Amino acid sequence: MQKLVDFIQNIYNTKEFIPLHEPRFIGNEKKYLNDCIDSTFVSSVGKYVDMFEEQFAEKVGSKYAIATVNGTAALHIALLLSDVTADDEVITQPLTFVATCNAIEYIGAKSIFVDVDLDTMGLSPQSLKEFLEKNCEVIDKKCINKTTKKIIKACVPMHTFGHSCKIQEIKDICDAWHIALVEDSAESLGTTYKGKHTGTFGKLGAFSFNGNKIITSGGGGVIVTDDENLAKKAKYLTTTAKIPHKWEYVHDEIGYNYRMPNLNASLLVAQLEQLDGFIKSKRDLASKYTEFFKDDENIDFVKEPKDSKSNYWLQAVIVKDVAKRDNVLEYTNKHGIMTRPIWKLMNELDMFKDCQCECLKNAKYLEQRVINISSSVIV
Ligand SMILES: *Cc1c(COP(=O)(O)O)cnc(C)c1O
Question: 29-274: what fold?
Answer without folding.
Answer: Aspartate Aminotransferase; domain 2 (3.40.640)
